[in-house]
Amino acid sequence: MANECAANFISVKGPELLKSLVGESERGVRDVFDRARASVPCVIFFDEIDSLVPKRGGGSGDNNVSDRVVAQFLTELDGVETRKGVYVIGATNRLELIDDAILRAKRFGTMLYVPLPSATERAEILMALSRTKATAKTAYSEEIDFNTLAEDPRCEGFSGADLANLLRESALMAIRDYRSQFPGGITVSMISSAAPPMITPRHFELAFSQCKPSVPAEERERYHMVKELLEKHNKHPLEALRIANDATTRKKHAATRSLLSSSSSSSKNTSSSSVPVDDK
């Protein structure tokens, strides 16, 4: 987005601004916004923003560092100093942990739900990652079709990080096969003269046995419910999240009660069958 708008881009991991010394965390937040103001137009992207601006009043042993950071962040967002040309984007998968004041209007005005990629999007991600990951050390066989790979049922529920891990594991499998061709060891001259390891569909088959979706099915179902509440019922994100969390909790309790009931019935049957019966 920053490239398309010809804007500067600053990426910040939320936890990296948190320091143990008093005042250092707030100064880190100020420095980020000062850098952005000095290079307008600029987009600031806060990843894992929930760790930077959690709900206030919960920290007792951290000298209220979190509360002060939230206050400093609010000051910057409200634009006590001019914020013209500075655009702020935050990403989180724990919206319920963020302080309510951050989510009010004219601060983070627009909230967008970003679902896990579809099959078409997985193919695009795989192709993009294969171009960036492919170096002189590895190469992809012409037999590999990323569209077919993305539609594989085993890829269902994969995030971008999971797809990157899949490519990494397939490359490792190819390198292991490559090294097995040289039982006596590989020298630098051999590597420079030989063809690079070739990643084939077989290596992806081996990689699938090592790669699973990082987002559990239960979490995917919960966020799918949030998406429907946002799109079809026009709910506020926090309200949609609360409804989805309540539904998930009820489902867990129902499953637990069912399990306990089943276990209790089995115990009763076992006890009744072990009672001796008098022949008379």
> What portion of residues belong to β-strands?
5-15%
- The total beta strand count reads 5
- Shape designation: globular
Measure the end-to-end span: 87 Å
Task: Give a short account of the largest sheet.
Answer: 3 strands, parallel
Rg value: 26 Å
The helical percent reads 40-55%
Overall mean confidence score, pLDDT: 79
Low-confidence stretches: 270-275
From the helix content, strand content and strand pairing, which structural class follows? mainly alpha
Helical element count?
A: 9
Order of helices and strands: EHEHEHEHHHEHHH
Question: Biggest sheet, strands in spatial order?
Answer: 1-2-3
Task: Give descriptors for this structure.
5 strands; single chain; mainly alpha; 8% strand; 280 residues; three-stranded parallel beta sheet; two-stranded parallel ribbon
SSE layout and pairings?
Elements: E1 8-13, H1 24-37, E2 42-47, H2 65-78, E3 86-91, H3 119-133, E4 139-140, H4 146-150, H5 160-180, H6 188-193, E5 198-199, H7 201-208, H8 217-231, H9 237-273
Parallel strand pairs: 1-2, 2-3, 4-5
Helix pairs in contact: 1-2, 3-5, 5-7, 8-9
Explain briefly what this protein structure is:
With 280 residues, the chain is mainly alpha-helical. Helices cover 48% and strands 8% of the residues. It is built from nine helices and five strands; from the N terminus they run βαβαβαβαααβααα.
